[in-house]
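Students often ask why we bother encoding 3D structure as a string. The short answer is that it lets us treat folding as translation between two languages. Here is a chain of 128 residues written in the first language.
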Amino acid sequence: MYKTNNTEELLNISGADIKRCMKCGRCSASCPSYEDMDILPHQFVSFAENGRAEDLMASESLWKCLSCFACIERCPRDVKPARLIEAARLMIIRKQGEDYLSPDEIPELLNPEVPQQLLVSAFRKYRR
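And here it is in the second language, the structure alphabet:
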């Protein structure tokens, strides 16, 4: 079922139980970034099931996710689709092997239209 080592790594890091997903779409319905995503939260699980971790890792959705975990809260089967995104981000960061965001760079990123949660999440993910 899982075709690639990246998919196995994604599942191991995330701890998401993708077999529990019943594809109800509640996770996507609660996502504040839904309209900006190319892969929707309810599709994260399908990508993992079909061994498409590389496609998920190349997705714009990976960086559009606000890490608000609304999808986790709304999931009736406790699948935790946001953990797949968190794991994919971590895999990319591990492959890059460097810090790409320093505290000095944050003021440049401040924009009243960018949610502060996104900046905090980015800083957390890009610092060791």
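Translate back mentally: The two ends are 33 Å apart (CA to CA). Keep this in mind for the problem set.
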